[in-house]
Amino acid sequence: MNAAIAPPTLVSPTPSQPLTIEGAVPLNLLVVVDDRFVREACKEAAAALGYCTTATGSAEQAFSLIDSQTIDVVLLDLNLPGAGGLEVLGEIKRLQRDIEVIVMTGNGTVQSAVQAMKAGACDFVTKPFGLNELKLLLERVAAHLKLKVANRRLCDEMRSGQSFGNIVGRTPEMDRLYRIIGKAAHSAHPVLILGESGTGKEMVARAIHYSGPCRDKPFVPVDCGSLVPTLIESELFGHVKGAFTGASHAKDGLLALAEGGTVFLDEIGELPLDLQSKLLRALQEKEIRPVGSTKQIPINVRILAATNRDLEHAVGQGVFRRDLYFRLNVLSLRIPPLRERRQDVRLLVNTFLERHSRASGRKFDVSDDALKALTAYHWPGNVRELENCIERCCAMNSGPVIHTTDLPTSITGATARVSEGSPEPRITRIADLEKQGIVGAIEKLSGDKLMAAKLLGIGKTTLYRKLKEYESIS
Ligand SMILES: Nc1ncnc2c1ncn2[C@@H]1O[C@H](COP(=O)(O)OP(=O)(O)OP(=O)(O)O)[C@@H](O)[C@H]1O
Ligand SMILES: [Mg+2]
User: Fold this and answer.
1) Is the pLDDT of residue 293 over 80?
2) Three-state secondary structure along 86-123?
3) Which of 33, 238, 278, 389 is the most exposed place for a label (fewest CB within 10 A)?
4) 195 lines ligand 1 (CB under 6 A)
5) Strands 123-126 and 100-105
6) Whose CA is nearest to atom 12 of ligand 1?
7) Mean confidence (pLDDT) of the chain
8) Omega cis (within 30) before 423
9) pLDDT beyond 80 at 176
10) From the CB of 162, is ligand 1 less than 6 Å away?
11) Residue 302's pLDDT is what?
12) Does pLDDT of 216 surpass 80?
């Protein structure tokens, strides 16, 4: 190896901020170079740019890393000993079509660089090269990747007919919701967002704000349920100096801070009655009076409110003001609970798995059976519960595939029905449970069958016999 690369110590030891795409997703680079010195130098240079880097000198290990982790870019030396560079490139592309491969070629072998580009490499660098050259190349590829991902997301959004932030869902119920969000975004009226806990009310509120003309102005969420009752008034309307004990400075309220933007009143059903009338007055008059002040201050904000309570019922019970309810309910939308749009479970699961794979650098998938169980479950905590469940499964799982045995028993034990019309509870055959237990244990233990037999409390001969049976059945 004759790459004229500076010694690793010359590379800036302080890594810059991690390079990310789609907000917070890190960019992962795999360096596949035989020469240890060059490998380490490349690794350090990439890490200093903010890439999450892994390195190996072997093609075989590179394949297994690509198979088990999320890799965005490969820096590949075409002269790996014992392996044809172009074949290695071909195999990488076969394993992961989307990976960007930068090839490193020997001096004077431009022809192999051309061949590599034809075989799918995105760029090349010719040895000997300097660190600056490598740095520029890696920066270029990072910029290209960011664009590619943004472009793909745009295409996905256009294909699914929506572009409301990260809201996932393609069922007719969600399509209806997108249409209403689109309309609400371009109106200035208050919107009341209804839905059970975890259905995505705050996401929808943000989508309305950020899709509308005031997207550059503040979006201020206010959790009416968690504010201390005695402080809600000053939080919303502000106070003057000395208004109450401890008010050593004048403070602007959230309604004033959101000037020109949106105030999202979450859990509006929890607002005490006396404040409901003050809020109503503020909305009608479009002005507020800070606590302790005699002056009214004009405000210009859009109000979005959300609740998981039945507000009509609360009005009937006299705990929510009817006039405020009408004022907030000019436009209203209801987010369907997840059990009413089970077809979205697969898409949501894939989205969360993909997010987790990218963040952890390990690939995750879900088995068909596990997906069936997830789809059948009734999800009282809706999308938030599903998101947490996938997060937990990924964190606890040693293997790349989430099986039914990895799911919480509250989900697998549930007798939810796959389709609304089907009356039978889900019953699993004992033989299937046994198979799930054995196969799941082997996967969890990364293929260690002897340990699996030990932990399952069965003899190794029994375990091998069972595996043979499964093979002959499948
Ligand atoms: N359609 C969706 N697509 C993707 N993620 C979603 C969706 N709906 C909800 N989530 C996720 O679920 C979690 C809960 O969402 P959110 O806080 O908006 O729900 P909420 O209805 O306001 O819940 P709560 O009533 O408990 O406050 C968030 O992490 C959000 O990212
Ligand atoms: Mg909420």
Assistant:
1) yes
2) HHHHHHHHHHCCCCEEEEEECCCCHHHHHHHHHCCCCE
3) 278
4) yes
5) parallel
6) 384
7) 84
8) no
9) yes
10) no
11) 95
12) yes
